[in-house]
Target: Ribonuclease HII
Amino acid sequence: MAKKVLEPFIYPIDPQVHLVCGADEAGRGPLVGNVVAACVILDPSRPISGLADSKKLSEKKRDALALQIKENALAYGIGQCTPKEIDRMNILYASLEAMRRAYVNMHKTCELMLIDGNKLIPDFPLAMQAVVKGDARVPEISAASILAKTERDAQLYALDKQYPEYGFARHKGYPTAAHFEVLHKLPLLSCYRMTYAPIRKLLAEGKGIIETI
Model:
């Protein structure tokens, strides 16, 4: 089967002239930890080679590109929502709220925000456009994808150091067989997303919870 070629993205305004930011998130699927978003304005005079969907890059390449983005971008911001906020809002709205926080934390006003996916941030006074497969089609979104992914991975590595028996460095909180095997042996941590179906099931079975720092 021939590989599907994505249509090139056509900017509604020229990012060489206008301030255009890209936004993306990481961590919608995992059972544990924050959902993390990033917002990036690239500098046309300092192009970054190799930007792509963070999921298609090796960890080593992502880390190297994250450093370049932070050094060369006109501005970037990180935003996140905690597991408790995810449980209260649901993961879709928490992801959009994390993007809003990332934009605010960028401390720079844009004329247009390009968002990966098909949803826009509700009640946000900024021109926005959703771009399906934007992390592979729009460099600003690719850069945001890379920053969000590397930041979330760093948080999971830190959690792994605190609780090495849970294996967070390996499965990154995703619902893998190895992760479920651990959860059947150990109590839940309070940084789990309690409304996610597998965690709800464990709670219903009487699984205990340890409060994390």
Q: What stands out?
A: The chain has a mean pLDDT of 96. The radius of gyration is 18 Å. DSSP finds eight helices and seven strands in the chain.
